[in-house]
Each structure stands twice: as C-alpha cells, then as structure tokens.
Amino acid sequence: MEKLNFEEFQEIITKKVQTKLDEKITVRVTDVTKNNGVILKGMTFTGEGETISPTIYLEQYYDEYQMGRSWSEIVDRIIDTFRFGSKNNLFDVEAFLDFEKAKEHIAFKLVNYEKNEKLLETIPHKKFLDMAVVYYYLLNNDEFENATILIYNNHLERWGVDVDTLDKIAKENTPKLLEFELRPIAEVLNELLQKKGFPEVCMPEEESDEFGMYVLSNSSKVFGAASILYPDVLKNFAEKLDRDLYILPSSVHEVILLPKRSETEWETLQEMVKEVNATQLEEVEILSDSVYSYTKKDDCLLPAWEVV
Prior knowledge:
308 residues, alpha+beta, four-stranded antiparallel β-sheet, 13 strands, globular
C-alpha cells in the first residue's frame, strides 16, 4: 500500500488523536518556526480558557509511520506524551507568567542574524556581530532535560519589562545555570566515539597545548556557543596560552577555539566552517559561516577579516 505524504499524514493523525481525547480539548497542527527559519509541524492541545498549549512535533512520528509503525501505536504514543506532560505538571504555566518567578530561569543563546530575520521581528534580541543574542526560559525538569521555551515580544508585554532588563537578567543567570566547559578537542572526540561503542583512540599529543584545538560549550551541551559571551572566558584562556584566538562556530551548541598562528589562516578556516555547515549539520544547528578573532590585548572579539 502506497504511503501517505506528510500533509496527508498530518490530517489523518490529527483526526485520530482528537477522537481519543476529551471533546473539551482541541487538537490542531500549526507551523512552528525554529532556528534558521526551519518550519516544523507542531500538534497543539488546548483546553477551555487555556492560552499556552503543549506542542508535539510530528516529523518524528511521520518517520515512524514510513518505517511501518501502525496508526494505533503512533496515536497512543502521542497521547501518552501529552498526558504524561499534563499529569506531571512538567511546565508550570503560572510560574512562567509571573515574572518574579520566571526571571530565575531566563538565559540567553546565540543564533544567526540573517537566517532568523523573520523570527527576530517577534522576539526580543540584541545584535552581536553577524549573530543575535536571544532569550529563553530553561525548564528545570528531570523528565525533559534541557527543555526550553523561546521568549517572545508578547511575553515581555505581559511581564511589563523591556529587552534591556531581560538581557541584564540573562547575563547574570546563564553562566550560573549553564557553566562553561572548555576541553581539548581530542578528549571530546574520544567521548563521542565511546558513546557510540567504539574503543578509545590514542591520539598523538601536540608538541605544545598552544597549537591544539579546544571545544567551548556549556554543562548541558545545549546552546553552548553562547559561552563566548561569558565574562573573561576568552580573555583568561588567551592569557593562559599567551596567544590571540580564532573562534570557529561549529554549531549553536559549541565553538572551537584555536590559538592564532598567522593572520592569514582564517581564510582556510572559514572554508572549513562553511564545508562543515553545508555537509555535516542540520540546518537548525548552524550558527554562522564566519570565523572570529579574539585579541587578548584589546579584549576584543571581531570577525577575522576585520583583524587582518
């Protein structure tokens, strides 16, 4: 039997889920704009008088359908996910709407400015180089680790605060909620290999640490590229190596720090970043095609081509 396309799947799965829920709950599928303009189909569940709805993205369930999972199994999994979240109060709506309670959970991340221009019209942000600092609410929940809620302009209106206030709070919170981690790239790669079941690889040691590559992220490994904005992180590392640095944005989740050896190598590095972005990353994970230069003398971070 010929498989349905994604649009047909959405229509049928919505009807099947709706028939198994209380009629007071309305099930809809809407477009949800994610990072870099990626549009996902989100199934929402709204009860009477509710203004905030849980969202379950349908792409993964369509993949399961294409792999042969039955309609009944998919419907049950969606409903189980919805009911689990509702029953366990994984998201305290009242706490989110109360700014005095919500502000303790506010953090920032970095996204590409040009790729998110449409989204940035609807969310508070600060421009930073060719990126934007945007803000989110971090859920402290063991069941859904690293779950976040992007903060929109209408949230600020409800809270009665401006973007400068939000930015100040996020700058205070983020380094505390998500401490930075800086490790040699060989150590990070070995960890990834071992998680996939491969044996540890003995990599030749660099003649000196100053020529190595390092991965900078945060303790959750989610949106860790923003760690470059933490106070003194780049400064202290550059002073430790007694070298200026190149910063390669390997994704929204981490950056690579490389001690600078010449003022011209940034061109080769930028081609490498572009190649990785084009061939190795999902669109939603891309941060930038640029390479940045940190100068320890001036404690300054700029696009590499401006420093040459």
